[in-house]
């Protein structure tokens, strides 16, 4: 049985791919992340995902970089919680749509591996989106393999980002680094 795995970054993909394959799934990767900014960051993450694909014998479907449309829709939302939900839902919808279009009955996401994401909201959104597209969302707890994935990715020399990807998280990351620097002075 096949599963389409939405991949947000290379390091987060390693353990979920291995776990799904151990469960007997034929895994196909899907890189769709219009939230990532700037474009050079998007390219680095895509390269890391493609590297993981080669190392784990994983086909990767790469989708368009739809940043302008994503940003236009994001800007209309008034608070960070709504923006997070929009960001997760947009990626889950596109993954479910592609899964349905490709005849893949199941989909899931590496967002479920991150200790920085709201897993319960992502699971709820995944279930809602699955109904819309007639596929099944596999709500797996991939967090238990997060550290292991990141250790392996360092051994493989993969790119590691220091923010989730969006403009807002990039700004927050820079502000936090600047604050730490000023506190050290």
Characterization of the model:
This protein is of the alpha/beta class and 185 residues long. It has a single domain (2-184), classed as Rossmann fold (3-Layer(aba) Sandwich). The chain is 57% helix and 11% strand. It has seven helices and five strands, in the order βαβαβααβαβαα. It has helices at residues 10-22, 39-55, 67-75, 80-102, 119-133, 146-155, 167-184, and strands at residues 2-6, 26-31, 60-62, 106-109, 136-137. It has a five-stranded parallel β-sheet, sandwiched between helices. The longest helix has 23 residues, at 80-102. The chain is globular and about 55 Å long. The model has no long low-confidence stretch (mean pLDDT 93).
Topology of helices and strands:
Blueprint lengths: L1 E5 L3 H13 L3 E6 L7 H17 L4 E3 L4 H9 L4 H23 L3 E4 L9 H15 L2 E2 L8 H10 L11 H18 L1
Parallel strand pairs: 1-2, 1-4, 2-3, 4-5
Helix pairs in contact: 1-2, 1-6, 4-5
Fraction of residues in H or I helices = 55-70%
Number of continuous helical runs? 7
**Cross-sheet strand order for the largest sheet:** 3-2-1-4-5
User: Which stretches of 5+ consecutive residues score pLDDT under 50?
Assistant: none
Distance between the termini: 56 Å
The CATH superfamily title: HUPs
Largest sheet: 5 strands, parallel
SSE order, as H and E? EHEHEHHEHEHH
Estimate the mean pLDDT confidence: 93
The CATH class is: Alpha Beta
* Number of domain units: 1
